[in-house]
Amino acid sequence: MNQPAKILLQLDSDPQPSVFDAVVAIDSGVDFLLRHGSVTPDNVRDLVYGAIFTRGGDDLKHTAIFIGGSKVADGEKLLAAVEKTFFGPRVSVMLDANGANTTAAAAVLSTMKHVDVANVTALVLGGTGPVGLRAARLLAGLGAYVRVASRSQERAEAACRSLAKHVPADLLEPVAVSNDEEALAALADVGVLIAAGAAGAQLLSAQARQQATSLKVAIDLNAVPPVGLEGIKPTDKAVEQNGAMCYGALGVGGLKMKIHKACVRRLFEANNLVLDAEQILAVGQSLT
Question: Could you name the CATH architecture of 102-252?
């Protein structure tokens, strides 16, 4: 007997739904993609109703929802609105606004190839941005002690308060880093460094990084020149420099794409899944 078509409802907070997310969905085996832009929590209900009232029983797992958009905070609000809409019948849903969850998961899984994250101190530069927040959350969730860095101490403290809703607060330390001198102080005893700053912003010089002798892993998630960690090429993948295994954005990107596709496929295995940061990391772990 033929299976019902796999239908993915793409909800995007931006006016034009992401082409990137659409292509990945198609490459993941979705049969029909329904793309909606400018979606807000106020108009999400009827879109979700259309997804959950048209199929019943076991057929519900053949419909799923993907939440994207360039702003992670908007995506989080959409996820909350979608979950609030479910009252019995429901479908599986994935949040990956701005690629933050899949990118952070790929960075953390790359880290786990080289160190035991439950026994390491990590520094996340650009830790108040969407990917930085997710990376810090996943690392602390695995037991790492995480220094969350921002140019502003106030923003770093606000980020830690937000993260403490998901992970133990005593595993988080806000730090202000606006130059190499402050970065070196924050790098004391750090084994894992992840740079998740804005595109084209250098966060640490190669000279300063070479002075951080405790580093075991250094990952730069910015591919736009100048890169975030000077001296690490976007294509680097487990390239050793001064005793640390280094990854560039493209070096992590291959795993990010595998995780993204695997998560979309996973949506159609059941109708009750919610794939957020931790669940997406778990899917990635199943691949590695």
Answer: 3-Layer(aba) Sandwich (3.40)
Enter the tokens of residue 90.
């429901």
Q: Give whole-number Cα distances, 92 to 66, 239, 273, in Å.
A: 9, 38, 4
| pTM listed for this prediction | 0.96
Dist. CA 216–CA 246, nearest whole Å: 9
Separation in Å, CA 90 to CA 51, 63, 181, 239: 8, 9, 52, 45
3-state secondary structure of 169: helix
What residue ranges do the domains of the chain occupy? 7-95, 102-252
* CATH of 7-95 among 3.40.640.10, 1.10.260.40, 3.30.450.40, 3.40.50.10280: 3.40.50.10280
Q: What is the C-alpha to C-alpha distance for residues 267 and 8, in angstroms, rounded to an integer?
A: 9
Beta carbons of 106 and 219 less than 8 angstroms apart:
no
pLDDT band at 1, cuts 50/70/90? low
